Amino acid sequence: MSATFSHSTVVPSPISGSAGSSRIALIDRQGTIVAVNRNWSDLANQTHATLSDVAVGVNYLSVCRRASVSCDDAREALDGIQSVLTGRSRSFVLDYSAEVDRRPAYFRMVVTPFCHGSIEAAIVHIDITKIQLSRKKSHQRARDYARRLISVQEQERERIAREIHDDLGNRIALLSFSVHSLMSRSGNYGHELSEVRDRIEDLSHAMRHLSHSLHPHLLRHFGIRTTLKVFCEEYGKACSIHIDVKVPDAAQLPEETSLCLFRVLQESLHNIAKHSAATSASVVLEIEPGLTRLVISDNGRGFVQEMARQKEGLGFTSMRERVLCIGGQLKIHSTPGTGTQVRVTIPMAPKEVGAESVEPDPLR
User: Would 337 be classed as within a structural domain?
Assistant: First the structure.
C-alpha cells in the first residue's frame, strides 16, 4: 500500500551507528522516542520535518495522532504502531512517499517488537526509492505496450467492421433483392421464398449489429452522449432490460477516453444480460473539472467478489487494462442479492474536456 506522510510525520531519526542507510527510532510502551540513529535525524532535515517532533523524548504516537486529523496515512501508521505495542500484531509495514531534497522519495516503515529495558518497539524507515522508481518504469512500459496493442486491436476491429458493412452488407442486400424478384415470378414457392427473405433480413440486422459492436461509428460522428444513449436503448430492447441513461447534454471527451468508456459499458451490459438476471440497470456519466466518471449499476443477483477475483475472466481483465492505460481506475462492487456496480474514474486535464469533434447530436 502506498501512503504519503506530511512533513511533520515523515518520522525519520541519533542510536549509535547508522545501521546502514535505515532510519531507526526506538520507542517505549507509551510511544515516546527513547533513542534514534543519525540517519533518522538526517531524514528529518531532508524532508523539512521539525526536529522537535521526531527527537528523543517526543511521543511519536502523539505526532501521528495530530497528523491523522488531515492525513489518512498518518492514521494508518498510528494504528499500526499501537497494534505492535499492544501485542495485537507481530509487526507492521507501510510504504509511503515523501519529498527529499525537493525530489519524490519512497520509504518502507517497519515496526517490530524490540524489548530492552524500557524499549518496546523499533521503528525503521528503509529507502526503497530505486525499487519503486524501477517498478514504476516497468509498469509504465507495460502500460504503453498494452496501449499500443489496444490501438492496433481497435484499428483491426474498424477494418473488419468496414468489410462487414461494405462487402458482406452489399452482398446480403443483393441476395435479398434477388429473392424478392423471384417471389414476384414464382407463385408456387412464394411462401417459402418469403421465409428465406425474412431470414436474410434477420441476417442483415445481425451483421449490422456485429459491425456496430466491432466499431461504434456513432462515437466518431456524434460523440459519447449519443453513442451511450443509442447503444443502451438498443441493448435494453434486445435483452428486455430497462436501462436508465443519464449523460450531460454537453458531454464531449477525447476519442480515446470515449472509446474506453464505451468498451467498458459494452462489456458491463453484456455481463448484466448474461449473468445477473437483472430487470433494470442505470448508466450515469459525470463530467467534472479534472474528472470523468462512469457508473453502471444493475438490480441483479450480484456475486461474491473474492470468488470472482479468483476466476476473473477476459472481459474484466480487458476492462481493467483499458482503463489503466489511460490513467484511470476501475472498481467493481457487488454482494449476492444486491446487484453490481461498475465505477470508472478517469482524471482529465482541463483542455481534454470538450476535445471531441462531433457532428450535431441527432438526439437533441
Answer: yes
173 and 80 share one domain: no
CA distance 67 to 25: 18
Q: What are residue 336's phi and psi, to 5 degrees?
A: -55, 130
Among residues 27, 164, 207, which one has the least CA distance to residue 109?
27
Number of domains in the chain: 3
Q: What average pLDDT does range 34-62 have in this prediction?
A: 81
pLDDT digits (tens, 9 = 90+) for 145-194: 777 776 777 777 777 767 776 677 677 777 777 777 777 776 666 677 77
Neighbours of 359 (CB within 10 A): 11
pTM: 0.53
Asked if 7 and 65 sit in the same domain, the reply is yes
> Which domain, by its residues, includes 82?
2-127
Residues 161, 37 share a domain = no
Other beta carbons within 10 angstroms of residue 248's beta carbon come to: 12
Residue 309: what pLDDT?
A: 67
Closest CA to 262 of 291, 309, 226: 226
Task: Tell whether the torsion through CA atoms of 319, 320, 326 and 329 is positive or negative.
Answer: positive
Distance CA 230, CA 252 (A): 16
Do both 34 and 76 map to the same domain? yes
Q: Quick check: is 308 in a domain? A: yes
